Amino acid sequence: MRKILMYIAACCLVLLTGCCIKTENSSSRNSRIFNGFFMQYFLHSNNTAAATTTAVTTTSTTVTTTVTTTQAVTEPPTEPPVRYYTSAAVYAPESDTVIFSDKIHESISPASMTKLMTACVALKYVPSDTVFTVGSELGYVQPYSSMCYIEPGQQFTLHDLLTGLLLSSGNDAAYKIAVNTARIESGNTSMTDIEAIEYFCGLMNQLAAELEMTNTHFATPDGWDHNQQLTTVYDLLKLTKYSMKYDEIGEITALAEKDITALTGEDFNWKNSNRLLHEDDDYYCPYAIGTKTGSTVLAGNCLISQFYINATNYIIIVTGCPTDESRFEETLKLFEEFCMQ
Length: 341
Known about the structure:
Blueprint: H1 2-20, H2 26-51, E1 87-92, E2 97-102, H3 114-125, E3 131-133, E4 155-157, H4 158-166, H5 171-186, H6 193-210, H7 233-243, H8 247-253, E5 257-261, E6 267-271, E7 288-296, E8 300-309, E9 312-321, H9 324-338
Antiparallel strand pairs: 1-2, 1-9, 3-4, 5-6, 7-8, 8-9
Helix pairs in contact: 1-2, 3-4, 3-5, 3-7, 4-5, 4-8, 5-6
């Protein structure tokens, strides 16, 4: 717009000049004046435009876009619980249902769980009020055995000896029961101790066969480690269920402890090695009602336990536990997981 106005002004100036100056050849001169003025105008206009050009500073803003990709969180796979046993089972005897099992057909050493069989065989052949006199059979008890500390010459009923056998896990009681039961059942009271022990083990294996404990063999009445003495958890379930038919076994194994007076006057206090039954113990369980512990080098720490909850009986077996405490811990874990539902 400015250029147009200046152009018009220049034209007017030329015309005015033409009117005021009277010379020869005036149109030619006017033409030169117009052209000169016009060139000056454009030169001035261009220079001014160049001089008045405004510098524009462009600020480049870098925009950083953060794209957050949300991925589904994958939970790590649930690890199976750590078990500190070599084999185990949870069993409901009334319905004959194995609720949980782990390696129940693998061969194990039975340790003092053997004493359940010892008690069953004795009660099968001998009345519980029969009087036994302790004798030389104690010489077959292995060093460092668990004991109820009976001595030769002392007299007990079979029921009282079963109490020492099943509560204190007395190996001395096991040999006393075995020898006298064998002599009574065979009718041969002159049997030597070793003959009577072998005969009694034969009765144990005979009953095992009747119960279809097909992977079991007994070689001692107390469960001491022996290369011919073995069983499985599956077979022990059958034995434990069978033992429930004897009220004496159930009554004895449910006790935390028992005071006994021998027929010859000696007093004994026998405590149950099953810590689930002791109210002052960390492993006490009010639902526990028996039955038998077992521990040897080959067997590890074992436990057959029986529970009664919600009008249902349960048998739980754990074997091969590394410590005394772990057999009770593992048993309670299985009880809480499978029985308290």
